[in-house]
């Protein structure tokens, strides 16, 4: 069975460098709205929805999902769009996908940007429990605890529209789509593979993030550099996991600089 085509939102000039953005577990491409506005017409922007998230269909249900399924779906989607060369960036699960694409050395990949994600979401034992919870109680049962990890205390006041949109996307996420991405997370550990990344890499690390805090970003940068790839690290103070939502202008500028340089 061929890989599914992911739903996408495409904006920007056709002749500009292509930047592909991937979102976190439970949200959708809507999380990039403010970043997209700050990027303007400086890139050809492709925002995709993960399987079972936003407008994308589920992966096949006859087996557990794995990272190669996500990469195949993304590759198939970009082929359908006629994209031959692109820069891949993502936050949280989207960042893990960018790392995996770099490790797999996908054709046409020019650079990666990894935000709020290391090579493994440990402990891997947490994911079967989360799958059971979402199948029993639905995604809405997870949203409050998730938002506490994702956003600073100031975020509801400073970015109310963005948080409302992401909350709606989270609650609308298909339970099985959430479960499938959890299956991928529970089976993915790239710790021993990141040295195979050969494309320029940007790591964006939030000070109070559990996924890629500043010290872990330095460790990941060293591991990637050991394989010979150039790595830059951008540190954002005072924010948690969803740094791109709370600091869209800074993230957009960093993305443009990275894409333009490579």
Automatic annotation (TrEMBL):
Keyword Hydrolase set for record: yes
Keywords: Hydrolase
Domain spans labelled AB hydrolase-1: 19-254
Record has Hydrolase as a keyword: yes
GO cellular component, one term: membrane
Gene3D superfamilies assigned: alpha/beta hydrolase
Protein name (record): Alpha/beta fold hydrolase
Entry superkingdom: Bacteria
Pfam (any one): Abhydrolase_6
Signal sequence bounds: none
InterPro entries registered for this protein in UniProt: AB_hydrolase_1, AB_hydrolase_fold, AB_hydrolase_sf
């Amino acid at each position: 069975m061929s890989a599914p085509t992911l739903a996408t939102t495409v904006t920007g000039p056709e002749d500009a460098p292509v930047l592909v953005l991937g979102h976190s577990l439970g949200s959708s491409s809507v999380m990039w709205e403010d970043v997209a506005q700050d990027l303007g017409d400086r890139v050809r922007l492709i925002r995709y929805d993960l399987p079972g998230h936003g407008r994308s269909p589920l992966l096949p249900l006859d087996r557990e999902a794995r990272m190669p399924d996500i990469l195949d779906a993304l590759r198939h989607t970009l082929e359908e769009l006629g994209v031959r060369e692109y820069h891949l960036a993502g936050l949280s699960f989207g960042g893990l996908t960018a790392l995996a694409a770099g490790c797999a050395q996908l054709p046409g990949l020019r650079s990666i940007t990894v935000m709020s994600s290391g090579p493994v979401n440990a402990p891997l034992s947490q994911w079967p429990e989360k799958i059971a919870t979402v199948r029993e109680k639905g995604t809405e049962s997870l949203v409050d605890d998730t938002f506490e990890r994702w956003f600073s205390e100031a975020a509801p006041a400073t970015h109310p529209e963005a948080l409302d949109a992401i909350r709606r996307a989270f609650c609308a996420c298909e339970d099985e789509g959430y479960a499938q991405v959890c299956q991928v997370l529970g089976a993915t550990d790239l710790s021993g593979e990141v040295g195979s990344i050969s494309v320029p890499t940007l790591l964006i690390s939030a000070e109070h993030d559990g996924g890629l805090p500043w010290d872990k970003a330095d460790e990941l940068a060293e591991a990637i550099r050991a394989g010979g790839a150039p790595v830059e690290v951008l540190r954002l103070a005072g924010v948690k996991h969803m740094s791109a939502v709370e600091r869209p202008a800074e993230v957009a500028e960093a993305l443009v600089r990275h894409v333009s340089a490579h």
